[in-house]
Amino acid sequence: MSEPLVEVESVRKAFPTGSWPRRGEPTVAVDDVSFQVVAGESLGIVGESGSGKSTLAGVICGLTKPDSGRVRVKGREIHAGRRFDRTVWRSVQMVFQDPYTSLNPSMTIEEIVAEPLRLWHGVAAPVARRRAGEILDRVGLSATAARRRAGGLSGGQRQRASIARALAVSPEVIVLDESVSALDVSVQAQILELLLELKRDTGLTYLLISHDISVIRVVCSRVLVMRRGQVVEECPAEDLTAEGATHEYTRRLLSAVPMLSAANG
């Protein structure tokens, strides 16, 4: 088997409840989660709201420090010492659920995509703008859209811009946290098809976080099912069916979610 690109080892994260001096018992969001992802794989993490999916995504991306456990990318630990490793952090990029709040409203889309090229890679401004235009074209955004701000784009266009910004730093892993859940079904299918095209063309590794099993099955080859901060089932995506599921919670999720087939044609 190939060496893992991403290693999550015994990660635990809890959050305090109440206020001082009357602190309650901490809420455990992620409880002893371990898994590995090889390069080029698409791993889906599915579960209902409150299952710990988004907290786990934040830990993997370096946005949240775990209470215990480790996350490694290519053998390098993200949260080494008191601060996470910024070099590793750049190789893992995140696409958030709400692109409107994750895109700077005062900058044009071209400026947003060009900024990490200038700041992280030292690319001259004219070259960064040209590359930004190429990346935006790759995700299906026109030159007209590139000159607009986030408020002037549709939800689907904003999500394409978020994907373009993630691609700008040439990451090895993209974590997508509920990245299509706020979109219409037809637009969801278009974004999922874009993700599949990018994977075929670039060999990107995806971690796709979703409460929607139908979305996971379109993009991912392997699935982790989370409940109350723990992984309760792991299986190939093709086995994620009522007949193939081994955990009762997974079967309940399957019975509750309609299957999305538009992106499969």
Layout: helices, strands, pairs:
Blueprint: E1 4-15, E2 18-19, E3 22-23, E4 27-38, E5 42-46, H1 53-61, E6 68-73, E7 76-77, H2 86-90, E8 92-95, H3 99-102, H4 109-121, H5 125-138, H6 143-146, H7 155-167, E9 173-177, H8 185-202, E10 205-210, H9 213-219, E11 222-227, E12 230-236, H10 248-256
Parallel strand pairs: 5-10, 5-11, 8-9, 9-10
Antiparallel strand pairs: 1-4, 1-6, 2-3, 6-7, 11-12
Order of SSEs? EEEEEHEEHEHHHHHEHEHEEH
Query: Which regions are unreliable across 5 or more consecutive residues at pLDDT < 50?
Result: 260-265
CATH topology of the largest domain: Rossmann fold
Count of individual helical segments: 10
Q: Choose one word for the global shape.
A: globular
Oligomer: single chain
The overall number of domains is 2
CATH superfamily of the largest domain: P-loop containing nucleotide triphosphate hydrolases
Beta content: 25-35%
Given helix and strand content, the structural type is alpha/beta
Taking all residues together, what is the mean pLDDT?
90
Radius of gyration: 19 Å
